[in-house]
Amino acid sequence: MKGKKFLFVTAVFALFLFTPLCVSASDLRLPDSAWDVNYTVEVSAPDGGVNFRWGPGVEYGKIQESMIPNGTLLPIFKEATAQNGNNWGLTDYNDTSGWIALTQVSVVADSTSEPEKGIVFKHFMENGMEYATVTSYDKEGKTLWTYKTDSYEGAQCNRVSEIGQQNGYFYLVEDGVVAALDVLTGEIVWKNEEFIGAGTEKGYVFDKNGTLYISGYLGPDLFIVDKNGKTLYRKDSFEKGYWPYEMELKDENILRIHFESDMEGKGTQPWMEIRLEELEYR
Predict the structure, then answer these.
(1) What is the pTM of this model?
(2) Exposed, middle or buried, 122 (CB in 10 Å: 0-12/13-18/19+)?
(3) What is the DSSP string of 245-276?
(4) Are 47 and 100 in contact (CB under 8 A)?
(5) Among 30, 34, 111, 160, which residue has the fewest nearby CB atoms (within 10 Å)?
(6) Class in CATH terms, 32-107
(7) What is the DSSP string of 133-162?
(8) Where is the signal peptide (predicted)?
(9) What is the mean pLDDT of each run of 10 residues along the chain (282 residues)?
């Protein structure tokens, strides 16, 4: 692909030093990328509990040595995506704020809340096994259909993740496969088994033609599939040592991919821009 130019810009921000022992509430990390939520979860981890940490990721120190035990109900106020692509939740426990891995909890239904409406994706981790459900509800909250994924052994990255609704389909990633469900019936319309990646919370975007651009946390850095499930383009890695986590489309022709820091945790936050007209599939 001669003539293609990729702009790769690295913005260096403050480098934080972490010690094994965290003792101050000032150590609590609130990433700029975190977003507000409001729901309740129950701890249901295969190890009998979930670790309580100062930041969203296993690289952050523990607030306490003992785990928050299974069966504990916790309010979740914010979510953030960790370096491995999994989501973490900010909660309060014993009058202290901290982060827990959301792969180790289950969402608790609130009987006082409004009934579910539209199409709802729910992720579960039970006894070390991961799965998800996609359920369509009518305006009164009545279930129209439910799709349940297979169960998979828990791994570093989520093996099941949501993409969302587009083109009359509901998209998800299941064990490295991009799947499209019919929004009216919940039936699988097509699967693309060439992705072979773990989806991230914000690592995808659709263009005006319904083409899906998606990144896998550990690769591929860019995968493009049309609305009929056909692979248009694949790039395993643009730059070694960086992991894509967010994507945006500018003016329908410039794709920007945001990456997280390298293996040494240098605190870099690079991004790159790709002119889609220069890719061979167009």
Answers:
(1) 0.60
(2) middle
(3) EEEEEETTTEEEEEEE--TT---EEEEEEEEG
(4) no
(5) 111
(6) mainly beta
(7) EEEEE-TTS-EEEEEEPPPEE--SS-SEEE
(8) 1-25
(9) 41 32 57 86 92 94 94 92 89 92 85 72 82 90 92 87 95 96 97 91 91 90 96 88 83 87 54 86 64
